[in-house]
Amino acid sequence: MLQDWQNLLNPDIEFFIEKNKTLSAAALMLKSKAPQGTAMADIAVQVAARQKAAYKLPQWAATPQIIYASSLSMEQCSSQAAAQYKASLSQGATLLDLTGGMGVDCFYLAQSFQKAIHLEQQPQLSAITAHNFRQLGATHIECVCTDSLDFLEKYEGCADLIYLDPARRNDHQQKVFRLADCQPNVADLLPLLAQKTRRWLLKLSPMLDLKEALAQLPPVQAVHIVTVDNECKELLFLIDNQENTPNAAPPITAVHLRSNGQNTAQTFTWTQEAQTQCTFAPQPLAYLYEPHAGLLKAGAFRWVAAHFGLHKLHPDSHLYTSDSLVADFAGRIFRCNGLLPYDKKSIKAAIPNLKANVSIRNFPDSVAQIRKKTGLTDGGAAYVIGTTLQSGKPVLLLCEKVG
What we know:
Elements: H1 11-19, H2 25-29, H3 40-56, H4 58-61, H5 71-76, H6 80-87, E1 92-97, H7 104-109, E2 113-119, H8 123-135, E3 141-144, H9 148-154, E4 161-164, H10 186-196, E5 199-204, H11 210-216, E6 220-228, E7 231-240, E8 252-257, E9 264-268, H12 270-275, E10 279-280, E11 287-291, H13 293-298, H14 302-308, E12 311-312, E13 320-322, E14 331-340, H15 344-350, E15 357-361, H16 367-374, E16 382-388, E17 394-401
Parallel strand pairs: 1-2, 1-4, 2-3, 4-5, 6-8, 10-12, 15-16
Antiparallel strand pairs: 5-7, 6-7, 8-9, 11-13, 11-14, 12-13, 14-17, 16-17
C-alpha cells in the first residue's frame, strides 16, 4: 500500500520520478531524501512499475500521471495484449468486473460495452484505479469500493457480461492454483451468476488442470488459452448460462500473442483430438517443430500433426517433423542437422565453443544433467534438443532455429 498516492501527482515528484526512471528500486532507496516529503518507497514502486509497463502496458506507460498501486498489482495484472484479446470475446451494454484490481482487464473489456462497473474492496486500490481510468479517458467505467458478493446480491440489473479473475494467493500470500482455493470461491457465486447475467468470463491460472476446471464449472461455451511470447499466461472460460453443450468437448482456442505482431490462433476440440490419426517418422526429417506452450497446454497433440501435415516423432514427445518447411506452424521451427552422440568429445566436435540452447521433450535426463555430462553452456546459435524417437531410443538432436 502506498503511503500517500495523491502526493505522487505533485509536479516536483513527477519530475523526480522521470529523472530517475532508469534506476533500480534498490538504488532509489539509497537516495537520502525524496522531494516534498514523499516516501521513497512510494517513488520506487512507481519507477519499477513504469519500467515494466513500458513493455507490458504500453498505453498506460504513455499516459501521463498513471499511478501504480503496488508491485504485486503490476505483477498480477494482464498484459495489454492479453487484455485486448479478452475484449474481442464479448460485447454488450453492461459489464460487471467482480475482481477489479488494477483495472487493466476492465479497461480493455469495457471498450466493447456501453457501461462498466469495476468492483474492488481495497479503498486505496479502488481510488487509484478510478483516477487512472480518468487519465485514460474511460469515463463510462464506474468504480465501486465494495465486496463483490454483497454488490451482486443487491444488484437489480442483468449484466451482459460478468468478468471474474479470482485472487490466486492465500492469506499468507502464497500462490494457489486449484479453483476451490481462489478468492472469491467461484462455486459460491454460481447461483448469483445464473441470476445476474447470461454470460460470464472466468480467468484462471495456466497451472490449473483444464479437465479439473471443466468438471467443476457449469457448461462452458468456449475455452481460450492465452500465450504471450511462448509463455502460457491465462486460461479463459466463457460460460453462457443458457448453453447446454456437455463440458467434455467445448471448443478450445489456443492463441499465441507475439511481440512481433505475428499472432496465431488454432481452435479444436478434445473429440477431434481423440478421433485424429497421425503418422510417425522413425527419424527426424529436415525440419523439426515444437508447438507453442498454449497448444501443448490445450492437449492438441495428434491434431497438430494432422492440421499442419506433419509427422510425430513419438506419441509422448510432442515434437513434429517434415521434409518441406511448413512456415506457418504455430510454434518454434528448427532445421535439424542430425543426431548427436551423447558424450563430451562428440559434442565438442560438433559444437566447438560448447555453447547451445538445450531443451528436452520426453527425454530421461534433465537439461542440467545434459549440460553436466556434455560441458555445454547456455547461449550461441546451436540448439540441442533431447527427445525420444518412435523406437523408444533417447537421442540428442542438433538444430538451428528457422526465422
